[in-house]
UniProtKB/TrEMBL annotation:
Keywords: Lipoprotein, Membrane, Transmembrane, Transmembrane helix. This is ABC-type transport system, involved in lipoprotein release, permease component. The keyword Lipoprotein applies. The chain crosses the membrane at residues 20-41, 100-119.
Length: 166
């Protein structure tokens, strides 16, 4: 797909992506185990509760509405929405913890991925820089470069040697 999109810009260069089959297999197995375990615990809990109780959800809320009080500071700072959120937080501590943990994990993954992509863009930018030259000679030897340097109109030149290791 990459070759189709930017193949004209990079003549003679072909991008080859090779993902080992074992990496895909391990990812699928780990994902399957994670999904199975995440479904197993709620299924065991749900099997112990009668259907009517599960629909009502009376086991989750143990504190009565009248007993939950919020401070006046919460009401002044956050308004009625903050009061409702504070009461809900005090009623459902397990759901609150799950929400906070999932938000922390999501934000951490987002920051890590964003940093990785920014670093990748910086490295790509330093590799593909805009060089100010009019003539480039590739594949020559030192005598060819010295001969080109003596041409008229050449103010300065540089010699760069690159090799690849496979």
């Amino acid at each position: 797909m990459v070759n189709l999109l930017i193949g004209d810009m990079m003549e003679g260069t072909e991008f080859v992506y090779n993902v080992p089959g074992m990496a895909i297999l391990i990812s699928v197995v780990i994902s399957g185990i994670t999904i199975f375990l995440s479904c197993l615990i709620p299924a065991i809990k749900a099997s112990k509760i009668p259907p009517i109780e599960a629909i009502r959800g009376t086991d989750d809320i143990k504190i009565k509405t009248r007993k939950i009080k919020t401070s006046k500071l919460t009401k002044k700072l956050f308004g009625i929405g903050g009061v409702i959120a504070s009461k809900n937080l005090k009623r459902n501590r397990k759901k609150y913890r799950t929400t906070v943990v999932s938000l922390v994990v999501s934000i951490s993954i987002f920051i890590a991925l964003s940093s990785f992509l920014t670093y990748g863009q910086m490295m790509t930018g330093s590799y593909y820089t805009d060089l100010s030259y009019n003539i480039a000679v590739n594949g020559g030897n030192e005598t060819l470069y010295e001969k080109v340097a003596t041409w008229s109109g050449i103010n300065s030149y540089s010699y760069s040697y690159q090799t690849s290791a496979e």
